[in-house]
Amino acid sequence: MQDLEMRHLNGPEVGWDGQKAMEKAKALLRRGTFFSNYIIAFVIILTLNFVLPRMMPGDPLQAIYGEEALLAMTPQLEAELVSRLALDQSIGQQFVAYILALLSGDLGHSYYYNQEVLSVILDFLPWTLLLTGTALVISTLAGLILGIESGYRRGRQLDKTLLAGLMFLSGFPDFFMGIVLLLVFGVVMGMVPLSGALTPYSGLEGLPLALDILHHLLAPLAALVLVRVTSAYLLTRNTMITTLKENFILTARAKGCTEGQIKYRHAGRNSLLPVVTATGLLIPHLITGALFVEIVFSYPGVGWLLYNALLTRDYPLIQGILLMVTVAVLLANLLVDLLYSKLDPRVSHAR
Amino acid sequence: MHVNVWHEVVESNMGKAGLLLIGLMVVLAVFAPVLSPYSPRENTSTPAFSRPSADHWLGTNDARQDIWTQLLYGARTSLTVGFGVALLTALISILVGGTAAIFGGLYDRFWMRVVDATMAVPDVIVIILVAAYLRPNVLLMILLLSALSWPGGARVIRAQTLTLKERMHVSAARTFGAGWSHLLVRHIIPDLGPILVAIMIQDARRAVFMEAGLSFLGISDPSVMSWGKMMQYARVFTYLEVWKWWLLPTGLALSLTLMGLSFTGYSLESALDPRLREADHHHDGGI
Asked: Which of B120, B124, B285 has its CB closest to that of A153?
């Protein structure tokens, strides 16, 4: 029954899964099986990465390296790859070779870029980090403030407008929100650039360069924030509503606290806890959302790289990107679970 | 207090809007052949990139295909995937969650561990990975999405079944020697109704969203028209005016379907939650 209550308290499920995370966090903490689920999830992805190409009919080398590699294939190269992947040995030994290669940071070789997969990804990663990082900070802060203001004014005009408006916005898939912003502000109004992360060959440095990067960042950032701000907003609003009914708020009022003090210091602070969960939840969605938004804006991040890898069937690159994203998502979840128990003394005492 | 949940959903504005949107999409999907004389892949005799006209309500695309027809058949794909995943996840959720609650013990603990681990797996990644190797089709998509989205439902069903299990009529049935399958089918499932529907709506929404996103990435059944695929093709032509009747209507159709599902789900969940219901009746301005 407790699970059920949490689920409703979190409000409507729009584009994200509040109940899923709350339950996940709670279940994990309760059983003290903190890391094992993440390890299991990671092993599942690793196994898929290993098994899928080897399961394919035909030459496993082709399935692992894609057709691009066959063009460059010479007998020497083939022999080298077979011995490197241990393809002439048993499945067990192949798996050991695979894991050992991963441990040494070897994600394989991209024949399309003619580079090691890891170094290709590292070239594109900073832009994704910039996009998801700023989107995370802005949507959490905006969601918190809007949620506090809206919850404090429950039932009034501002609250109703915000609730309906944000619910409406969160109904858009992020890539379509990106397309709409691109069309309106890029194509029709010509206010933002249509693609890229900076103006090529501009020779800008210092502040002008930063402004140029910001200019390119605005539209993809706005697309992510507009769709994703709702989760933090709804959670904060719901917590505000329940917190405002508590006795200590009445006490605060009686002793003459100002509106602002009650709103932010007394009630608002109590809404922080669920927002941590919401933020943690947001990270996987933001990462995958950023993948899609990057494609729309041809923003040179990991998502755009993944799209091109899918188009060119660059299998080692696809595998490498997905592995990195998995690690990022799992680490983020783990971090939030740890932070959650730090923030809420009840949770750490219960353990 | 006994509350007629369905009645409340139909009465609320949110519920009405949601059901209306879902109904609209179902009509478009079901009557697609009636609503359009073309087939989605037919190369018509109209020139490519024609503006909307009486013959082609949304004009034609680069391959002289009728965009309105593609939109209708895209609705079929989205709704098939959504409905299929909702049905399959509900089934797995009941089987796992229901039996875990009834049997308890080691069996329960085993399944809850599986639920926890599956929840930690990032689903978009698994699907992209699998689809990159296997040729994706609608059935595979439904199976994959269901395989990854059942744990949330199973957990809720388990929690709900645990409370239902203690109700008088269930204990009575048990005293008369009813087996677990009888208990589940005759006594537990009927009472799970509204919650089950809420879970199904959530899963359907996610499935429609994921299918569109994945086919936007190019991961889709090549023989089937879908909204994500239409947007993937249309995106390339933003420098022409065609986006007004190609890209935009497709995205709107997808967004409206998603909104229809969220609105219905939201009103259903508010009807199920006494606290939110109370909040709706007292408009005291929060002070």
From this structure: B285
How do beta strands A115-116 and A109-110 pair? Answer: antiparallel
pLDDT in tens, A238-276: 888 888 888 888 888 888 888 888 888 888 777 777 777
Token pair for A158 = 């501002």
Candidates B120, B129, B217; nearest CB to A48: B129
Question: Which sequence spans correspond to the domains of chain B?
Answer: 2-40+57-286
Q: Does domain B2-40+57-286 have CATH number 2.60.40?
A: no
ipTM: 0.79
CATH class for the region spanning A121-350: mainly alpha
Angle between helices B123-133 and B189-216 (to 10 degrees): 60
Percent of chain A with pLDDT over 90: 5
Residues of chain A with CATH 1.10.3720.10: 121-350
pLDDT in tens, A308-327: 888 888 888 888 888 888 88
Q: What is the pLDDT of residues B13-26, one digit of tens each?
A: 888 888 999 999 99
B248 touches chain A (CB under 8 A): yes
- Please check whether residue B282 is in contact with residue A245, taking contact to mean a CB–CB distance below 8 angstroms: no
Statement: residue B79 has pLDDT above 80: yes
Kindly report the length of chain B.
287
Roughly what angle, to the nearest 10 degrees, separates helices A60-71 and A75-85? 150
CB burial readout B266-285, b (16+ within 10 A) else e: bbbbbbbbeebeebeeeeee
Distance between CA atoms of residues A211 and A217, nearest Å = 10
Q: Look at A40 and B117 and tell me if their CB atoms are within 8 Å.
A: yes
Residue-wise pLDDT tens digits, B113-168: 888 888 878 888 888 888 888 878 889 899 999 998 899 889 888 988 888 877 87
Question: Which residue out of A42, A179, A317 would a mutagenesis test of the B interface target, given it has the greatest number of B Cβ atoms within 10 Å?
Answer: A179
B276 near B270, Cβ under 8 Å? yes
Instruction: Round to whole Å and give the CA distance between A157 and A149.
Output: 12
Q: Hey, which residues 118-147 in chain A have their CB within 8 Å of chain B? A: none
* Run of H or E residues at A116: strand A115-116
Cα separation of the two ends of chain A: 20
Cα–Cα distance for residue pair B79/B224, rounded to 1 Å: 13
Residues 265-324, chain A: which have Cβ within 8 Å of B? 284, 288, 292, 295-296, 306-307, 310-311, 313, 315, 318-319, 322
Say if residues A14 and A281 touch (Cβ distance below 8 Å): no
Closest CA to A274 of A33, A19, A37, A35: A19
* B207, B82 Cβ separation under 8 angstroms: yes
Residue B117 to residue A246: CA distance in whole angstroms:
37
| Distance, CA of B186 to CA of B202 (rounded, Å) | 25
Quick one: which of A124, A52, A132, A128 has its CA closest to A309? A124
pLDDT of residue A79: 76
Task: Note whether A258 and A321 are within 8 A (CB).
Answer: no
pLDDT at B246 over 70: yes
Q: Choose, out of B110, B121, B244, the residue to mutate when testing the contact with A (most A CBs < 10 Å).
A: B121
- B235 close to A (CB below 8 A): yes
Helix (H, G, I), strand (E, B) or coil at A110: strand
**Predicted TM-score (pTM) of this structure:** 0.81
Task: Say how many CA atoms lie within 13 Å of B180 toward its Cβ.
Answer: 12
